[in-house]
């Protein structure tokens, strides 16, 4: 029973443990009848007596009608995610564990939404898993410049609730607390998440020579406090472009860079 002065929680409370360094996974401990919701395809392993169920949308509105479920699924479709998510519920009598893995090299960040006024705005593919009851929606960027040049377009993910959520990003993740009026400029692809109070805009780098030959893109994401932002050192798009450029079909080498390795590649039939 919840007494006077206690806040009734809308989300399940979950315990967790992070494993690994650059290729992390998170192990979540579920009490009996406790549920966690995750992106489809993120499961790594789970113990016995955990029931897995595919649902429309995020399942945050318990007992909702078919229209609410379709609207929730439609929001996920707009952000480029799957129509479906997966819930994992402990149907046993003791504690059970379920684990979710990172989709690419990087870090998993646990965020308690109640510490940030119940709302977090993040890039479209950042969400990994959360306590049942956390709402995963969409956040439209009102400024035209942000929409066209912000790296993530007009639409970002919006996580709402008071429970624990896990987001993922590439490389090393740096958290920066901005004071009122403090400005941080970051590469548009390196922004992972921010609290709702942060003012987000796009700024031209300035100077034709810098813009054309600087190699850093034409625009910065300008973040103005107060609030908290999370920045990643290796966006997946940057990693993918390097891998794609190094592929043999694109003229890259499959060897380690020596002259001998290139000769052996030719003799071995790896070069066309």
Please, could you describe this protein's structure?
With 272 residues, the chain is α+β, with helices and mostly antiparallel strands. The protein has helices at residues 66-78, 144-149, 208-213, 236-246, 259-268, and strands spanning 15-19, 25-30, 35-39, 43-46, 50-56, 84-90, 96-101, 106-112, 119-122, 127-131, 135-140, 155-160, 164-170, 173-178, 183-187, 191-195, 199-204, 219-224, 227-232. It has a domain at 15-169: Mitochondrial biogenesis AIM24 (Double-stranded beta-helix, 4-Layer Sandwich). A hairpin with a 5-residue loop joins strand 1 (15-19) and strand 2 (25-30).
Short description:
The chain has 272 residues and is of the alpha+beta class.
> How many helical elements?
5
| CA-CA gap between termini | 72 Å
- Helix vs. strand class: alpha+beta
Give the fraction of residues assigned to helices. 10-25%
**Main sheet: strand order:** 5-6-3-10-13-8
Strand-helix topology:
Elements: E1 15-19, E2 25-30, E3 35-39, E4 43-46, E5 50-56, H1 66-78, E6 84-90, E7 96-101, E8 106-112, E9 119-122, E10 127-131, E11 135-140, H2 144-149, E12 155-160, E13 164-170, E14 173-178, E15 183-187, E16 191-195, E17 199-204, H3 208-213, E18 219-224, E19 227-232, H4 236-246, H5 259-268
Antiparallel strand pairs: 1-2, 2-7, 3-6, 3-10, 4-7, 5-6, 8-13, 9-12, 9-16, 10-13, 11-12, 14-19, 15-18, 16-19, 17-18
Q: Which descriptors apply to this entry?
A:
alpha+beta; Double-stranded beta-helix; six-stranded antiparallel beta sheet; 19 strands; globular; disordered C terminus
